[in-house]
Amino acid sequence: MKVFVSGGGTGGHFFPALALIECLLEKSIPTTFIGSRRGIEQKLKSQIPVEALFLSSHPFMGRGTGEKLVAVLKNLSSTLGLLQKLRGESAGVVFGGYASLPLGLSCILRKKPLYLHEQNSVPSESNRLLSKFAKRVFITFESSRVYFPREKVVKVGLPVRKRLLEGRSLSVSRAREELGLEEGFTLLVMGGSQGASFLNRLALEVFSQTGWQGIHLTGERDYTSISSYYKERGIKVLTLPFSHSMEVLYRASDIAISRAGASSITELSLFGVPALFIPFPHAVYDHQFYNAKEIEELGGGLILREREADTEKVILFLEKLARDREAFSERIKTFANPVACELMLEYILKGG
Known about the structure:
The chain has 15 helices and 13 strands. It has 352 residues and is an alpha/beta fold. Strand 9, helix 9 (223-233) and strand 10 form a beta-alpha-beta unit. Helix 1 crosses helix 15 (340-350) and helix 8 (197-210) crosses helix 13. It starts with a strand and ends with a helix. The mean pLDDT is 92.
């Protein structure tokens, strides 16, 4: 069997797809990645360890009439172009978003097994559409179950890359040593792959007022100004624009301030790092809030809306996390599933 995997447009769709590809390669299963020429996957194509096809797929949601027409034509063209690839024994696995639509439609037209993975609590329009034709719908958050045909849904969690999973064996002291940090309480601040200007400004205030040791992932845009700010004031914060060694940062951290994307939540959960989640307020369908809500209900973190997140309130919430850190840590660990990929493959390879 050959497996086609599609996920892109954003890192939230792309990195879980990469994690599944790693599992497929371990089993020596022929695999092809399908992405979009305009998505993050094109920029990060060097990380894709299998044959990769980049199509002219185009986003539809939130666009004007002219762009929607362009999207329909480009997605139709991409779908027709894929049909010749889906021959013989093959299956498609899509991770949602506009980049996945051509593969999903091609599988339907070719009558090939189609499997979906939904990362967020509130699913994308493309996954809702494709779920009607899928054999299985794999979900990360329990709350997304109601959007799909009940008999098709399997909760597996979010696939995570092997490097992160293996990084859990690193000791806290070794991680801090690698980062040049001192022993003691450490706060991680991260705003996603592009950083977040609001969280960056908030972090400056929090570290200035508390004097805590920290790790601050700023994104490229704000890195220079924020790094200079800490250095000029002698504040003990390791400042990075991004990191390819997130496992070390997670292991070195006690608690976090974070947006509430599915990947961030899952990775924090795997390392038992409780967080104050400040969801991105403009996320489609407010899905980041509902992602974080599931963790808060588990007792693994706290939520503040961005409009409510003044410095004083944020510090109070962080102090609560720090006081009860062990209890929060144990509860957030119950969310992630380190064998999500293996569970998905059981269904895919058996045709179930």
